[in-house]
Specification:
Number of strands: 10
Structural class: alpha/beta
EC number: 2.7.7.65
Number of helices: 11
GO cellular component, one term: plasma membrane
Radius of gyration: 38 Å
Distance between the termini: 38 Å
Catalytic activity: 2 GTP = 3',3'-c-di-GMP + 2 diphosphate
GO molecular function, one term: diguanylate cyclase activity
InterPro entries: CheY-like_superfamily, Diguanylate_Cyclase, GGDEF_dom, Nucleotide_cyclase, Rev_trsase/Diguanyl_cyclase, Sig_transdc_resp-reg_receiver
Bound molecules: 3'-deoxy-guanosine-5'-triphosphate, magnesium ion
Oligomer: single chain
Largest sheet: 5 strands, parallel
Length: about 325
């Protein structure tokens, strides 16, 4: 049984704590110093820069800025190409880019926006204006990141819930002592097989199995030993059913029900006889039982499901046969 994991809210909270992180890409240190001065005294803004344009991509990837201030004219690298490269990088594609250029040129502005820049400022701008643009673009980016993270978190939570539900449904179908199908599951399976047998006009067999003199076993060896015995019986019955469609269920107490789809009486008798002898061969002492060991009486009923009959009718037939098996001396099969 896999463990049910619940969503961890700490992960979600961690990513909601964003800061404005500025990366300036400019080859001139004098510009770097000027921008640094403009942004100092603002506790919510982190300033970073890179003067070597060839290192811009790697630095940006590592830093994950909330906004890039991008110079256009730099030795060896065209700023326009750098913006293109950010847009092609999975981790930078959405980061806002503000072009910071000395040139107030409409064609350069158009080219910048065409490759994915978000803004264009002629340098050096007024301090207030630069701050306002940085905050505006960062805020938009951060809220998009938060929204994406919230969706991811929601999807993960929904998946966790769905997984937990599946586990709960599996648990709800199992008997807690023996781990085999419980009465609820038995009812579902029998109803489904009844419908299928009716549709396919195939015989459906049911074995009702009851451990003989089990009260005496409990009285002699105690309830813990009784529980262990029930587990062994359940394991043996499950082990010796060869077809995946057959279902062994704990019907209640020391009674087990076995549903055998597409099985006629002859086939069901073979399986019942194998089950009976395998339980006897467990050789669990039960001194006052007919053979001195734990044994099982089995009532067998077979029917081709039809509109006239019901699944409950099949149970009643198997019960009646079981009663006869008890009456006739136990440790036997009655069809
Ligand atoms: P018979 O051969 O006629 O079936 O006799 P029996 O003693 O098996 O039948 P009876 O119905 O009188 O007693 C069934 C016993 O099964 C009584 C109860 O203590 C025991 N039993 C039922 N469920 C459990 C269980 O979960 N654990 C244990 N240890 N015993 C159980
Ligand atoms: Mg330059
Ligand atoms: Mg009983
Ligand atoms: Mg019994």
């Amino acid at each position: 049984m896999s463990e049910v994991t619940l969503p961890i809210t700490a992960d979600y909270q961690a990513v909601t704590q964003f800061k404005v992180r500025v990366l300036l890409v400019d080859d001139q240190l004098i510009i770097v110093e000027a921008v640094r001065r403009m942004l100092s005294d603002h506790a919510d803004i982190e300033f970073h820069y890179v003067t070597d344009p060839a290192a811009a991509i790697a630095t940006a990837r590592q830093l994950q800025p909330t906004v890039i201030l991008q110079d256009l004219v730099m030795p060896g690298v065209d700023g326009i190409n750098l913006i293109r490269a950010y847009r092609d990088d999975a981790s930078l594609a959405q980061v806002p880019v503000i072009v910071l250029s000395a040139r107030d040129n409409p064609q350069l502005k158009a080219n910048s926006f065409a490759v994915g820049a978000n803004d264009y400022v002629v340098k050096l701008p007024d301090r207030l204006e630069l701050l306002a643009r940085i905050r505006y673009h960062s805020a938009g980016y951060i809220s998009r990141l938060q929204r994406d993270e919230a969706f991811r978190f929601l999807r993960a939570s929904q998946k966790n819930l769905a997984d937990a539900n599946i586990e709960l449904q599996k648990l709800a179908a199992l008997d807690s002592l023996t781990g085999i199908a419980n009465r609820r599951r038995f009812d579902e399976v029998l109803r489904a097989e009844w419908q299928r047998g009716k549709r396919d006009k195939k015989p459906l067999s049911l074995l009702m199995c009851d451990i003989d003199c089990f009260k005496m076993y409990n009285d002699t060896f105690g309830h813990l030993a009784g529980d262990l015995c029930l587990k062994k019986v359940a394991a043996v019955l499950t082990e010796h059913l060869m077809r995946p469609a057959d279902v062994v269920a704990r019907y209640g107490g020391e009674e087990f029900a076995i549903v055998l789809p597409d099985t006629d009486e002859r086939g069901a008798l073979l399986i019942a006889s194998a089950c009976r002898s395998h339980i006897e061969q467990l050789a669990i002492d039960n001194p006052r039982a007919p053979n001195g060991v734990i044994s099982m009486s089995i009532g067998l009923a077979t029917i081709v499901p039809s509109h006239e009959g019901t699944a409950e009718g099949l149970i009643a037939m198997a019960d009646k046969a079981l009663y006869r098996a008890k009456h006739d001396g136990r440790n036997r099969i009655v069809a």
